[in-house]
Amino acid sequence: MGQPGKKHELDEAARAALREREQLHRTVADLSQDLIWIFTDGVIVDCNDYAAHAFCLKAHDELIGRSILSLLYPDDHAFAKRRFAQLLQEGVVTPSREVRIIRDDGEVMTVETKACP
Fold first, then answer.
1. SS3 string of the chain?
2. In a domain? residue 25
3. Domain interval for residue 47
4. Residue 63's CATH number
């Protein structure tokens, strides 16, 4: 039998390493000059700081909870819905495609998108 408390120490070390790795990934994403967002059921659950900048917002948490479709130009909604379905059905990275976003100041911008499951 192993030493008492040894498994707990390993579990703590693994959790600490995971937290450190997650923070590193967050830092890399926030330094990126690409708009990065994570969504579930079409709603943004996380994004990087550049996403806020792209939408003319002060902080990335202003995008959390918003529908992706509410941020896209209406003529691009059908395409976005097809892409969401493709992600769910095929589970593969989608090819690059331009879509239009609507910034908080009302300006419409064309951006290149790529998505992965």
1. CCCCCHHHHHHHHHHHHHHHHHHHHHHHHHHCCCCCEEEECCEEEEECHHHHHHCCCCCHHHCCCCECHHHECHHHHHHHHHHHHHHHHHCCCCCCEEEEEECCCCCEEEEEECCCC
2. no
3. 32-113
4. 3.30.450.20
Confidence check: pLDDT of 110 > 90: yes
pLDDT single digits (tens) 5-52: 666 777 888 899 999 999 998 888 888 889 999 999 899 999 999 999
CA distance 94 to 116: 6
Q: Is residue 24 part of a domain?
A: no
Q: How many domains does the chain have?
A: 1
The answer, yes or no, to whether residue 1 has pLDDT greater than 80, is: no
Counted residue by residue, the chain has a size of 117
Q: Indicate the pTM of the whole model.
A: 0.77
